[in-house]
Amino acid sequence: MKNIRNAFTLIELLLVITLGIMLLAAVVLSVKNAQTKGQLSRIASDISEFRKVAEDIYYQEDSGYENICAGGTLSPIDSRLVDIKKDIEDKMKGSIICYSEKENYCLSVDLPGVNYFYCLDSKGNFEKTDSNMCVNANSLCVGGP
What we know:
The chain has about 140 residues and is α+β, with helices and mostly antiparallel strands. It has one domain. About 45% of the residues lie in helices and about 15% in strands. The strands form two sheets. Strands 3-4-5-6 form a four-stranded antiparallel β-sheet, covered by helices on one side. A two-stranded antiparallel sheet has the order 1-2. α1 runs antiparallel to α2. The longest helix has about 50 residues, at about 10-60. The termini are far apart. About 25% of the residues are buried.
C-alpha cells in the first residue's frame, strides 16, 4: 500500500514561519536605518540653511548675529528661522540649542536616537560632536567623534 503525503509537517510549517519572521525583521531594520539617515541628512540641510539665514541677517541688520537666537533656541526674527525650528523640533522631534551675540553664534542640534550632536559656529566649523559644544555664543564646534 502506497502512503501519499498531502500536508506539511509541523516542523516544515515552523521553519517557514521562522524564515518569514527573520525576513520581516531585516526589512524593518533596513527601513529604520534609512529613516534615521534621511533625518540626519535633513538636519544637515536645515543647518546649512541656518548658516545662510544667519549671514543674511548679519549683513542686513546693525545688530549682526545678536538676534538670531533667543532664550537658547532660534529666534522668530525671520520666517526662515521659524521654518527651520519647526522642521527640527516639530517634524523630527530634535532639540535646538542656540546662542548669539553681535559677532558670534553657536548652534547645536540633537536628534533622538543618535549619540552625537550637529554643531555649527560663526567661525565656519560644522561638525558632529560627542556632546553639546554650545554653552555660549563664543563656543566653537571642535572635537567631533
